[in-house]
Prior knowledge:
This is Glutamate decarboxylase. The chain has 527 residues and is an alpha/beta fold. It has helices spanning 70-81, 101-109, 122-138, 159-180, 198-206, 225-230, 254-263, 281-284, 352-389, 420-429, 459-478, 481-498, 516-520; strands at residues 11-12, 18-19, 152-156, 189-193, 210-214, 236-242, 270-273, 297-303, 315-319, 331-335, 338-342, 392-394, 405-410, 436-438, 447-452. β4 (189-193), α5 and β5 form a beta-alpha-beta unit. The radius of gyration is 27 Å and the shape is globular.
Amino acid sequence: xxxxxxxxxxxxxxxxxxxxxxxxxxxxxxxxxxxxxxxxxxxxxxxxxxxxxxxxxxxxxxxxxxxxxxxxxxxxxxxxxxxxxxxxxxxxxxxxxxxxxxxxxxxxxxxxxxxxxxxxxxxxxxxxxxxxxxxxxxxxxxxxxxxxxxxxxxxxxxxxxxxxxxxxxxxxxxxxxxxxxxxxxxxxxxxxxxxxxxxxxxxxxxxxxxxxxxxxxxxxxxxxxxxxxxxxxxxxxxxxxxxxxxxxxxxxxxxxxxxxxxxxxxxxxxxxxxxxxxxxxxxxxxxxxxxxxxxxxxxxxxxxxxxxxxxxxxxxxxxxxxxxxxxxxxxxxxxxxxxxxxxxxxxxxxxxxxxxxxxxxxxxxxxxxxxxxxxxxxxxxxxxxxxxxxxxxxxxxxxxxxxxxxxxxxxxxxxxxxxxxxxxxxxxxxxxxxxxxxxxxxxxxxxxxxxxxxxxxxxxxxxxxxxxxxxxxxxxxxxxxxxxxxxxxxxxxxxxxxxxxxxxxxxxxxxxxxxxxxxxxxxxxxx
Length: 527
């Protein structure tokens, strides 16, 4: 603590300035003599665009020597960011693009709070615990009344961190059992659909786990339960099942995987990746069994910043009980003389997104979430009908059997001279981001497009999109073969330029022998 009596008052110096009181000389090399220069006259005396800063390049490699006025710094950065797309027209992304003013106000008021500082911000920690409890009960986690066997979970930066934690917990638990039995524990593997999001490949590669894939076909995009269970061996740490496939929005049959494991008496846990579907399925399809109602499901992750309706930056992971989270992964933070458990990969982070999640849960309640998700499902079904009428093949089940998104592709019988990537590029020129992808490996290099229906995607905006898709088809259809070839070449060059790839050069990540992208050309959809 600093005592006021010990602080020296500054003495007036020449020309009305102040000189610092004598200080002990620094013993750190390079800090023996520090010259404190007097501030120079501010160069900002006219409008922002009449200042000298408006005629200069913004610093990009080295921090500038001098400061600039706050109004100019703000405006210059704002102008540069105007080149970004409009988030509301980005139909590639699942992340939330709308929140109520009250939620934004709460987030702004909490921006300076470091969530990990439990002693300073105890209520933020308490709010996280409430969210974990609500999510666990939403997923039918059994209540035993015993704190030592109650569900346990944590907030994360997003589902990527949550998946890392779930994978790491399965690996450590498997290793501990192998060690106790005196068996080798150096070759763990995990079973998953080849259509998994890239963070699963990251988790396997970062934690030295072999990936065992159940490959898609040109007609089946979800995991095949029988094939998945057949891949299990003594080194399998778990099976990943997805509620809300990134490509088509489909729900994988977790119940059948659970049944086969129990029927064959196989000791193998299931982790459910409900990043996208965890806040949809319970409200739109409540009879679907995929969560802790199933015996083999030991952990679930969900993204709060997707259909959890919070701006990007929050995810959750929940375990059935502390038995499935090995103690060596838990670190204790001293809080009011007691230890508070921490088991995230990240340490410091803002509290605002956790608070925003709590706001949405108590503001909307189950009925509010159900109303929103049903509206989104209806809008997605309406869009499917409109696209089907235009001749597209719809790949997403819809009608509440999948996420509120529409995956579609060109009917090969139509013999167009262009593909889905050309349509996507035409729509981008109109402001829409409707991505085209190459489907997961072993699906005969199937091309597809996908529209994610989010909370702010109204029916009116949906009709505008359909109108622009019609215009894109008309424009491309009117092109002759030579024009289409030039257009496709333009798309390829444009894409390379946007990502900084030199013409004809293969990116380094495509030259390795590890990832599905390198070995099969798989594209990873935006989440």
